[in-house]
Design a protein that fits this description.
This protein has about 550 residues and is an alpha/beta fold. Among the domains are: about 110-210, no CATH class; about 230-495, Rossmann fold. The protein is about 40% helix and about 20% strand.
C-alpha cells in the first residue's frame, strides 16, 4: 500500500524559513518606522520615574502647596490661547530629549597609534613580499597597509591578531622564506609573547595570532579519561577538540588536554621525553605512573638513583622501583620475559578461541628515567647495556599490552639505544630550546615562536605524525621533597593507591631504590625461545 505524502505545511521547511525571514524583516522595518514613538515613550517613562522620585523626596508638609501650585499652573495653561497644544508639544519635546540614545558611538577603524604600527609593519614587509617586475604591487614603499591587511585586532595597545594577504609569486613553500617573514612579524608585533602562524598557501593568506600563556596552576589529580588514555599535559583551546574538567585554586574549569593513547590499537604505544635538568621530565614520568596505576601495573627504573620515585615503593600495583645497575638490569630482564610470556599467551588464546587471561589483559607500564646513566655504569663495569633489554618490550609491547616511557636529558641523546629512538613514536621535549632542536627531536617544526619565559614542565609534544602542540605538564613533584609546596604534596599523596608499609617522613632520606619480586602467573611452563617469540609475533600480525 502506497503511503500518502504529508501535507506541505508539515514538510516544506524552506517555506518556514522564508516565513521566519519575512517576520524578521517586518519587525526591523517596524522598528525603523516607529523609532520616534519608541524614543518619546522611553522619555515619558523617564519623566514619570523622575516625578515619582521627586514626590517621594518631598516632605509631607510641602506636598499640599506643591499640588496647589501645579493645579494653578494647569489652569493658567488651559486659559491661555493654544495653551494645551503648546503644553503637549513641550512635554513631547522634553520626552524626546530625555529618551534619546545616549550611547557613545563605537569608534570605527584603528586609532592613530594603531595606524602607525600597522603602517610600519607594512613597510617592513615590503622588501620580503614585493618584486620589481610586478606592475601592480600589493606591497610598495609608497603603499598603504589597508590593501594588504584585511583583519587586525589590538589588545592593550599590542597587536593580538593580524590577517594579511601576500602576492602569489611569494615562495611560501620554502621554509627559509617563511621563517624570514615569521621572524620579522615576531619582532614587529612585540617580543615576550608566543605567536602562531597559519599559512594558507591555497589563498595566499597568513594569519598571526598572539597566544595566551599556558596555565601553570594545574596540579596532579584524577583526570577523567578512558582506559588506555594518559594526560601528558595541557595545550591551547584551538589545538585539540576535547576538554577535561580540572581543579585548581579557583575552582573547577575545563582545560584542553594532550592525550596519549596506549594499548593494542595504539599507533604510538611508547613515549620518549627529553629535556634539560629541572625542566620536568621526571615529573612527567611521575604523573604517568599515577595515572597508570588506576588500570594497570607499573615498573620503575630510576637511572639517576636520587630516589625521585620513593613515594611509589610498596604501593599496590607497583611491581618494582629500582635505581641500581644490578636491580635495574634484573627488572628489565624480567620485563622482557614478561612481554614474551604475554605474547605467547595471547597467541595461544587466539588460536584456541579462548578469552585472554586477565593477567595478560592488564596493562603493564615500564617507566625508565635516565637509561644513559645506567649504560655508562654498565660500560665502566664491563657489563651489557641495560637498554638492550628494552628491545622486546619496545618492538612487541603493543601486542602484549605493554607500554614503555623513557625520559632522559637532551645532551645524552647520543647514548640512547637505536631501538629506543626508533620505536618511540610519541615524543615530548621540555625546556627552553631553539626551534631547530625541537624539530630534530619531534621530527616536525613547531608552529609557534619560542616562549620568553619557560616554567618547569613547559615544552612541546607530538604524537606520531600529528601536529606539534604546546604542552604544560601538570605539577607532580616528589612528595618527600622538603621544598615542595604542601598543597602539591597533598595532591600527589592523595593519588597514591593504598598505603605503603611505612611512609617515609619528610626529614629522613628516601631510599634510592627498592624492589618487590614481581609474581609471574604462569599456569603452564613456556619455553621462551627466540623462534617461538618470532612465530607468535608473526601469527599476531597475520590475525
Amino acid at each position: 500500500m502506497a503511503r500518502r505524502p504529508l501535507p506541505s505545511i508539515l514538510t516544506s521547511r524552506p517555506a518556514l524559513v522564508r516565513g521566519r525571514d519575512l517576520a524578521r524583516s517586518a519587525a526591523d522595518s517596524a522598528t525603523d518606522v516607529l523609532h520616534p514613538v519608541i524614543t518619546i515613550a522611553r522619555g515619558m517613562r523617564k519623566q514619570v520615574a523622575w516625578a515619582g522620585s521627586w514626590w517621594g523626596r518631598t516632605p509631607k508638609d510641602r506636598r499640599g502647596p506643591a499640588l496647589l501650585l501645579a493645579a494653578a499652573g494647569v489652569v493658567v495653561v488651559v486659559m491661555m490661547p493654544y495653551g494645551p497644544l503648546l503644553a503637549i508639544a513641550a512635554v513631547m519635546a522634553s520626552a524626546a530629549w530625555m529618551g534619546r540614545d545616549r550611547t557613545p558611538p563605537t569608534p570605527t577603524g584603528p586609532s592613530e597609534a594603531e595606524t602607525g604600527r600597522l603602517q610600519s609593519l607594512y613597510e617592513a614587509l615590503v622588501p620580503y613580499l614585493s618584486d620589481a617586475g610586478d606592475p601592480a604591487p600589493l606591497y610598495a614603499h609608497d603603499g598603504s597597509w589597508d590593501k594588504a591587511f584585511s583583519e587586525y585586532e589590538f589588545q592593550d595597545g599590542r597587536l593580538a591578531r593580524l590577517h594579511l594577504r601576500y602576492p602569489a609569486y611569494f615562495t611560501d613553500g620554502e621554509a627559509e622564506s617563511r621563517t624570514r617573514v615569521e621572524q620579522l612579524l615576531h619582532a614587529k608585533a612585540g617580543r615576550g609573547r608566543e605567536y602562531r602562524f597559519d599559512w594558507n598557501e591555497e589563498e595566499n593568506h597568513l594569519t598571526l595570532t598572539a597566544l595566551a600563556p599556558l596555565p601553570t596552576d594545574i596540579v596532579a589529580q584524577r583526570f577523567i579519561t578512558a582506559p588506555g588514555e594518559t594526560v601528558l599535559g595541557f595545550t591551547d583551546d584551538a589545538a585539540v577538540q576535547r576538554t577535561v574538567p580540572v581543579t585548581d585554586g579557583d575552582g573547577t574549569r575545563d582545560a584542553p588536554p594532550v592525550v596519549w593513547r596506549t594499548g593494542t590499537r595504539s599507533t604510538e604505544p611508547h613515549l620518549l621525553a627529553l629535556g634539560q635538568p629541572g625542566t620536568g621530565t621526571t615529573s612527567l614520568l611521575r604523573s604517568i605512573a599515577l595515572q597508570a596505576l588506576v588500570y594497570g601495573d607499573v615498573v620503575v627504573v630510576d637511572g639517576s638513583g636520587t630516589g625521585e620515585y620513593a613515594c611509589l615503593i610498596g604501593r599496590p600495583g607497583v611491581l618494582a622501583v629500582e635505581g641500581g645497575l644490578s636491580g635495574a638490569s634484573a627488572t628489565l630482564e624480567w620485563a622482557a620475559h614478561e612481554t614474551e610470556r604475554r605474547l605467547i599467551a595471547v597467541n595461544r588464546a587466539r588460536q584456541s578461541g579462548d578469552p585472554v587471561a586477565d593477567d595478560v589483559r592488564r596493562p603493564l607500564w615500564i617507566l625508565v628515567d635516565r637509561p644513559t646513566a645506567l649504560s655508562q655504569l654498565a660500560l665502566a663495569e664491563g657489563r651489557p647495556d641495560p637498554q638492550t633489554l628494552l628491545d622486546v618490550p619496545l618492538r612487541h609491547g603493543r601486542a602484549a599490552n605493554v607500554a614503555v616511557a623513557v625520559a632522559d636529558q637532551l645532551d645524552a641523546t647520543e647514548g640512547l639505544a637505536p631501538v629506543v629512538i626508533a620505536q618511540t613514536r610519541a615524543r615530548v621535549v621540555l625546556g627552553p630550546l631553539a626551534p631547530e632542536h625541537v624539530e630534530a627531536v619531534l621530527g616536525a617544526p613547531q608552529r609557534t615562536t619560542p616562549a620568553a619565559e619557560v616554567p618547569p614542565g613547559r615544552g612541546y609534544a607530538r604524537l606520531g605524525t600529528g601536529p606539534v602542540l604546546r604542552l604544560q605538564v601538570p605539577s607532580t613533584p616528589d612528595p618527600y621533597d622538603e621544598e615542595c609546596a604542601q598543597a602539591h604534596r597533598d595532591a600527589v599523596l592523595s593519588l597514591l593507591p593504598g598505603a605503603a608499609p611505612a611512609d617515609l617522613p619528610l626529614h629522613e632520606e628516601a631510599p634510592a631504590s627498592a624492589s618487590s619480586a614481581p609474581a609471574e602467573p604462569e599456569p603452564v611452563p613456556v619455553a621462551l625461545r627466540k623462534d617461538a617469540v618470532v612465530r607468535a609475533v608473526a601469527d599476531l600480525e597475520l590475525s
